[in-house]
Write a sequence for this structure.
């Protein structure tokens, strides 16, 4: 019987796996150089953990199941609840700030489409136990650092930064009652994602009147923190002397990001609100500048989550970046190194003694020579591997002609072929990219410093 | 609400994560230097894929669930079915032999106990499309290579090698009918795992008579391939001229393993049969020599699996090694490097300008100096990180006393502290392990070659 992979999942053949490793190695390298430590949790948790964070309706968006003990479990659709659970469990012994990263495999019960799969990897960067906007700024810096590491420039991507605090305050000032905020914020998040008429329709359905909607549109189009205060004074929403919560923090963020030297990578955009209820402060999304609606990453401050999950109130912020949209974008923009396509071996060891006798040769003698040569190949292979260099050989080397072994060496992407001469004392080293060959190299000398291809 | 992790799963805090990465990096390094390429599949598959390989009873041993489309899915309990599915899907375009490895996360609906969890990682090495015993030998070599890479010697571990072919032939020769072989092989696999009386009981229940059981015990205690033939002649099971299937292959394996230079790491042991039905040839298990019943890894030849899953009949062999028993053993034997415990940073950048004015200082001036110093810290941090060195700083560096920042640098495992002098031109570099300090280093010189800690 022939069984397929499940729709929305991926098979990582070696070529796809090298791409995945290339992306994940970059994520890890960037995380570590920015002072973050790696963690991970289980692939499944109690369903309640996800429901506690996102409400019971989350159950339909993830894969849940019951174990033999009747426990309701679910494959993780995100790692933040696990992170909060883990930190809460050791809250008294973990020195803060906690700077952690993870690259979890996540699953969501989506309808698969381009850029959206049912299984993916997501890089997560989080700072827990720090209320300062410096932590938000550093997370944004780390995000830019990763973009650059993967070859993406300010012409490719932009981080658009909003503020839940400012947006919430603005909504209050234009008369939105507190109890409606949670349902209206996700509507504002749709502003840039749907046509204008659709947005107005959604806003009206959420209970906003025409004047409020006009205010919101004008507010969401403001270009910087400074402009918010001006707008509010201009429309008599606040007086000149008043402090608008969140605005000062956003101004501070702008200043610190300049010190971090990433001025070209971001812009203030109050259309970025983020859909999830749990954000409390600065929020941001990374967009592909070519296709502005495509988000590569998103995050923000979530100061209440640990408390919601049974811990203390502790400041926290961070972001997540998935591998699917990122991979599509890197591919489209030609940022994936060409040499990722092929396996790379340092050496391919070859026995030049074919088992096929030529005219006049004694066939037993030829066969014995071929076997002795094959044994020398294996011995050399183990010597090289034990020195840490990637080495292989042909399983048919006990008698296959030299030419066929060389062909296999090329197919396998070996940098050099090592042909063990029948004297058992010397090797010929053939550079497979240039074709140049060095003969008569004593085996002892060669093994002393075989060198690496990469 | 406070929610726990599910029993039988693990939280990988940074310390545990470093150990997991240390093990998995070794697996990957060994795989690549032995010429294997990495692959991976989805964490869930159609339940039928696992049932096709292992029978419908597998459903109770794994976590299965139904998606919204009513599909019966399961979290993978092993990766071999996925491997076979992937290879079958591209069987005509993949050059053989296929030498692949993977380090999948796997889940089984076990009752958790020491060394056996519901979620674990398993290194898999497989060679597909090669019938020669050379492939079996190479897999065994790779297994030894990994043991040595992790610091385990011939005094710690031993690979015990059996042969399904020889064992099956022996059972036939002592009169076991073909249709009973599948149910009797798993009984033989229990021989070393249960007391003698229990084994005899199981064997009788499986339909073996006393004479057959005696034969089996004597056979299973034979020390090498040679001895099998002798035993068979001695007991008139075969004649002197006859060929016993599997024996020649096992002798060949013994010879090739000697050429691979790992003579001290293995022994023939016909008590190793492997429980699973799908093995067809040479089989082996890696045991902890200290606790001989504890298996670290196991594998063998499985020439029929691709065909069972809808592909052609293609020779295949390989092994799997889990991370749980391995981790326990490495810990017990003190093989885990001590410096894995701590985070390692190359540099921790420090602002020596505290915001607290001393007697007679102008407090505004002091505050401004502290802020300027903090900005210099961030600028230096970004310079160092962009050079790929792991660097961090204290979020409170805009004013916290030098001593507290140094303390934090030590806690974070930084190799060196970089104290930016108020002149803005020079730094002091303090080696945090020796305490020695070099003052007045021009920033330009320092950044030209900051060096790494590790």
């Amino acid at each position: 019987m022939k069984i397929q992979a499940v729709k929305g999942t991926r098979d990582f053949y070696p070529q796809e796996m090298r791409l995945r490793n290339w992306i994940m190695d970059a994520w890890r390298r960037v995380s570590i150089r920015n002072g973050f430590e790696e963690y991970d949790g289980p692939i499944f948790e109690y369903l309640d953990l996800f429901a506690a964070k996102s409400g019971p309706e989350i159950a339909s968006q993830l894969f849940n199941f019951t174990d033999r003990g009747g426990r309701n479990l679910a494959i993780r659709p995100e790692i933040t609840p696990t992170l909060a659970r883990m930190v809460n469990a050791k809250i008294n012994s973990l020195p803060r700030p906690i700077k952690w990263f993870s690259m979890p495999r996540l699953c969501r019960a989506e309808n698969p489409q381009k850029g959206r799969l049912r299984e993916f990897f997501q890089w997560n960067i989080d700072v827990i136990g720090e209320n300062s906007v410096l932590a938000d700024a550093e997370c944004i810096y780390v995000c830019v650092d990763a973009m650059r590491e993967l070859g993406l420039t300010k012409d490719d991507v932009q981080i658009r930064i909003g503020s839940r605090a400012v947006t919430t305050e603005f909504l209050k000032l234009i008369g939105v009652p507190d109890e409606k905020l949670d349902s209206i914020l996700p509507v504002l998040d749709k502003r840039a994602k749907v046509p204008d008429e659709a947005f107005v329709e959604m806003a009206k359905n959420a209970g906003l009147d025409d004047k409020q909607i006009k205010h919101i549109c004008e507010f969401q189009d403001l270009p910087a923190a400074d402009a918010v205060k001006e707008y509010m004074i201009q429309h008599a929403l606040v007086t000149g002397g008043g402090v608008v919560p969140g605005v000062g923090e956003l101004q501070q963020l702008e200043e610190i990001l300049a010190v971090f030297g990433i001025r070209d990578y971001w812009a203030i955009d109050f259309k970025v609100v983020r859909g999830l209820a749990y954000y409390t402060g600065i929020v941001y999304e990374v967009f592909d500048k070519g296709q502005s609606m495509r988000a590569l990453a998103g995050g923000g401050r979530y100061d209440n989550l640990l408390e919601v999950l049974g811990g203390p109130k502790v400041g926290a912020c961070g972001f997540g970046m998935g591998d699917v949209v990122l991979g599509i974008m890197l591919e489209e923009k030609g940022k994936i190194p060409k040499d990722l396509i092929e396996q790379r071996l340092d050496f391919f060891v070859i026995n030049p003694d074919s088992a096929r006798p030529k005219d006049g040769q004694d066939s037993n003698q030829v066969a014995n020579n071929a076997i002795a040569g094959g044994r020398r190949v294996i011995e050399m292979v183990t010597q090289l591997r034990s020195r840490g260099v990637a080495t292989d050989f042909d399983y048919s080397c006990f008698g296959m002609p030299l030419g066929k072994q060389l062909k296999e060496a090329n197919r396998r992407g070996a940098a050099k072929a090592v042909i063990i001469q029948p004297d058992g004392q010397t090797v010929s080293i053939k550079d497979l990219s240039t074709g140049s060959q060095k003969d008569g190299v004593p085996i002892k000398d060669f093994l002393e410093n075989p060198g690496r291809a990469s």
